[in-house]
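User: For documentation purposes, I need each entry recorded in a consistent format: the amino acid sequence on its own, followed directly by the corresponding structure tokens. There are two entries in this batch. Please keep commentary to a minimum and don't merge the entries.

Assistant: Recorded as requested. Entry 1:
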Amino acid sequence: NGTIKAAVAMIDRLQIGSITVNDVQTIVLDDRALRTNLIGMSFLNRLDKYQVENGTLLLVQ
């Protein structure tokens, strides 16, 4: 809990493996703000399907 600094930005092209999404809105945080990377809903909602199977995130475009 608390306050952090963040910047809103637009990613022209975001590619994860064979999945590519253009014009994805993002929030950029300080490197120390999180312990891991996040894939946000602004990316996931642009896919045909996403789900977790046996602890693995499945992305379908």
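Entry 2:
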Amino acid sequence: MDRIQDLHLFRTVVRAGSLTSAGNHLGLSPAAMSGRLKALEAHYGVSLLKRSTRSMNLTPEGRLLFENSDRVIEEFDTLEATLRSGGSDLRGSITLTCPSDLGRQHVAGMVDEFLAENPEIQMRMFLTDNVLDIVETGCDVAIRYGNLPDSALTTRRLGPNRRLICCAPAYAERHGMPATPHDLAQYNCLALLRSDRIMDEWEFIKDGETMTIRIQGDRMSSDGFALRHMAMEGVGLVRKSLWDVAGDLKSGRLLSVLDDYTRSPFGFHLLTDHRTMMPRRIRLFIDFAVRYFKRLSGELAAYV
């Protein structure tokens, strides 16, 4: 900060033509002005002004500094104003991660609406069904399914959710529908692949009793969007969050099975590592996302 102030002083001296005139403008004595100027020259290790009792001229190094001083001071003032206001001009980027199917069906459209209102912001979206560490990967915001472990991350609930087991009507006609989770051993079940494991253990709860069933099938994918489309093609059963399949259930492209065992709530949250000093663009996006999904939640009421 002192260096910027000294640069401002140097620019004032050059424009005023003398230390005395510049000092009168800045409210500083000639001795104070001279001391500040000498400190600036000592910092850069060069002479900036040739001074005599009658004249003052710029050295080549002084001219270089003076010619660039306007730009440097203006850029610093702009940066400082932006930081002090929490990014009130709403410029910059936001990095977001979310599940692939949710991203394609809902988040991409939400981002379109947000950017239409805030055209100076850029969004970077990582659509993946792997759970990224948002601190290590530098993500500003994560949208996640599931019940969250305790952490230092700030969370906002986005809406109701549960997991369902679904299949295409054609698959149900050919194979019938399972009556209990134990019947899944007789069905082709589509498993999600994550970087660290296969999600082949499906949990069910009924009357307070939890059971875990290890499923089997001939297809796995790291992309939940692909698994849903396999199920719609009549390949097998898939486990999906309600937000991913509500449209397919409503249209009849998919049927839900084992509903008595899949009534338990399943989290749907937005997470951020920003707590204090949150940039305004990120705070604005978070509030927008909460309102957006609240608006859509009414369409899911029949399935919750």
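Summary note for entry 2:
The domain at 163-261 is CATH 3.40.190.10 (D-Maltodextrin-Binding Protein; domain 2).
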